[in-house]
Here is the input.
Amino acid sequence: MTVKRQLILCAGALETPKLLMLSGVGPRDQLEALGIPVVLEQPAIGQNLQDHPNVCLFYRGRQKVDFAHPQVYGFGRSNPASALPQKQADTCFTFMAAPITLKQSMYRMLPALALPGRWFYNPLLRGLLRRLIDFAFLWPFVESFVDRIYGVVVILGKPKSRGQLRLASASVHDQALIDPAYFNEPEDLETLLRGVNIAKQIAHQKRFAAWGNTPLGRAGHSDDRQTLERWVHGATMTTFHYCGTCSMGDGDGAPVDAKLKVKGVSNVCVADASAIPAIPVSALNAPTMMIAYRAADFIIAEAAGKREQNKQRKVAKS
Here is the structure.
């Protein structure tokens, strides 16, 4: 398959595979089921979906939270029994100042939770919910309560579970069906539970106790294993670190090659987090920027090579 002009896909790990599949590049069975002509069969498109699932333990201090950074990060190894190299971190611990981050988090999450399906894409409804959040924060008792809250976010850094993304229909307007498959691998749940216990130990250090560390909510702070497991399954949310759905590498399981080109298609490359084959223990901003820079290097080098070839052909003809 040949695309005449250079096409760069950088819509992200949830939209780039969707665009490819809508164009007929993807798993044959899924495309045929939706009546999409198969241009190129690529079974791995939309597979290998990865993310950093997280849970948050909230505490209330005796005084107003006063640290200026909205989030402070630390990394560690929670599960020494995992198959990762011994010095490899598997968990991120993020300390969150609620007065700085809670309102913004509600702006993002409440519309997604309260507005099902296509209602979420109605700007008037999203705007109404956000005005309600603004109104709630005008009440002095709400502000005084939030001012004393901080959280310890426990993020699973190296999940073994792999999800998938499928088309909901043949329409570009319909959101893809996303299955992150959190905790499909039991080791992931074990690692996160161990991380939660470490976070509780941190929050009960003398300095935090002196500051104030009253737990908010019971289940997440329980010592009962079953209670804690149920809480993790119910409280887990995305860190918006989706990647891997157009993985780069060798073999049939990687639809993108080492130069970020979609295999079997000329002049189409991927320059976003969908090309990341295995999620790193970090935010994906910097890795995605690195991929984009490398894609630019490859494209520029290829264009220069073509110009040189054309020049040599003209010289040969003359």
